[in-house]
Amino acid sequence: MSTAAEQIGLGAYPSEWRHRHLLGLEELSADEITLILDKAEVFKRAILQGHRRIPLLNDITCVTLFFENSTRTRISFSLAARRLGADSIDFSASTSSLSKGETVIDTAKNIEAMGTDVVIVRHRTPGTPHLLAQNLRASVVNAGDGPHEHPTQGLLDIMTIRERRGHVEGLTVALVGDIAHSRTARSNIWGLKKLGAHVIVCGPSTLVSPRWKELGVEYSWSLDEILPRVDVLNLLRIQFERQYGRPFPSVREYAHLYAMNAERLAKTKDDILILAPGPINRGVELTPDVADGSHSAILEQVTNGVAVRMAVLWLLSGAARDKR
Ligand code: CP
What we know:
Strand content: 5-15%
Radius of gyration: 20 Å
CATH class of the largest domain: Alpha Beta
CATH topology of the largest domain: Rossmann fold
Largest sheet: 5 strands, parallel
CATH architecture of the largest domain: 3-Layer(aba) Sandwich
Structural class: alpha/beta
Bound molecules: phosphoric acid mono(formamide)ester
Number of helices: 12
């Protein structure tokens, strides 16, 4: 009788995978990123073929420990865990004992003491997942730490690019918008650079500093100037909740200079690919006709998010079992 892994063509658990946690794409090699993407493609194909349950993680319990709001990341991690047969528990900060003064580490340790193998954490403070990784036996996945990293978002963005374009190496990818506060930007930069893409960060000078060049990327303050030479546009949300001052006079003026609309689309390459990590602000980063148009892969990104998170949970499960 064939195993679940054999039935979907997943292959044996890769002995070369050595990570206990997924804290950022900065720490992964190009081969490791490619391994995750390859496995995610297998999981996506299996789901499309009708495999709604792939019982590879029946003995694993995951908890989503989110201290910031989420729609896509939390639901897709829960769904990914359940599709793999794992137990998935959601922690809600607003109804928890945090209000009684319990610390994040104590909260996580108590949840771990109930028999949790994988902790998926989102927190507004950069480094929180790293802190938990130092204090827990469980595997820790960074689901977004302030403006620092959002590795599974970076992976699903890159998976979508690779799927649509067949490759990543040699492409020019522009990240447009609130680069200063974007964890998605940082994870995309690490991942895309490692896979050989040229990356441009573009936005107002209050949100895009020339210091980004230190990460090996080009910077631009003019979307109209870079449009003709980009293959992929990833339109990042203005994170009003993380701003200390006003980065531009008004949303209308931001949209005038940086919103992707039909007029700007006409200046791009014929096969331009439009991405946005979501949530999107229609009329600010992009207009509805672009968001819902033929160049947009925004909902494919969301679909790929489940497959990427299945691959990540499956790969980390080896370490989770070893640590029991
Ligand atoms: N892209 C993303 O992280 O979306 P959520 O905040 O809804 O999880």
